[in-house]
Amino acid sequence: MRKFQIIGIILVFILIGLLSIHSLNSINQDIGRHLKSGQIIWETKQVYKTNLFSFTEPNQPFINHHWFSEVVFYLLYLAAGLKGLILLKTSVILLSFFIIFLAIRKKTGIMLFVISSLVFMPVLIYRSDVRPEIFSYLFLSCFLFAIFRAKYRQEEKWLYLLPFIQIFWTNMHIYFYLLLLLHTAFCSVGFVCPGSCGFQRFVIPPAVVQSLMSL
């Protein structure tokens, strides 16, 4: 049984990797804007605050919630071209799945991870382009890893990485608010489940720091 589980895990990660590697002509239409935006930010050393890419409203105020992702894309494009961006995206997606696997394997078992990964594959195929949201996959995985380690293995030290994750996530993709919402949900566990008060005591301080860092 153990042998089949290991084979299943290996096949899942191979499949994820294959689905994540697109040919160059399948890169989505947003990548040009992200690269140009990253170039502007890198060369001017500041994040622009108006909608530069609008012909009719170029002076419209604009909040670039993924500026750091665009800088990363631009610098990697200079160093390794489009193939480098594809390899980055594939690596981030694989790492995200691996972190989730480490987080849940002791609690739920390997087969549940394999089955849920296969169910998630259609979504992965649809949303696996080179976009800033790939970093949300990674940061969400890190959050769940830290929470599960603290709750089920009493390794509260991982929680204090969350404020630093919040700093990067806030500047790399708009889904950063998910971290605050999920952290709030886990903080409320202590009020709902009497046996979780100890866990709540360790979760609340990082949550407060995260909220301040997102302002």
From TrEMBL:
Give UniProt keywords alphabetically. Answer: Membrane, Transmembrane, Transmembrane helix
| Segments traversing the membrane | 7-27, 74-103, 110-128, 134-152
Q: Which domain of life is it from?
A: Bacteria
Q: What is this protein called?
A: Glycosyltransferase RgtA/B/C/D-like domain-containing protein
Provenance organism: Candidatus Jorgensenbacteria bacterium GW2011_GWF2_41_8
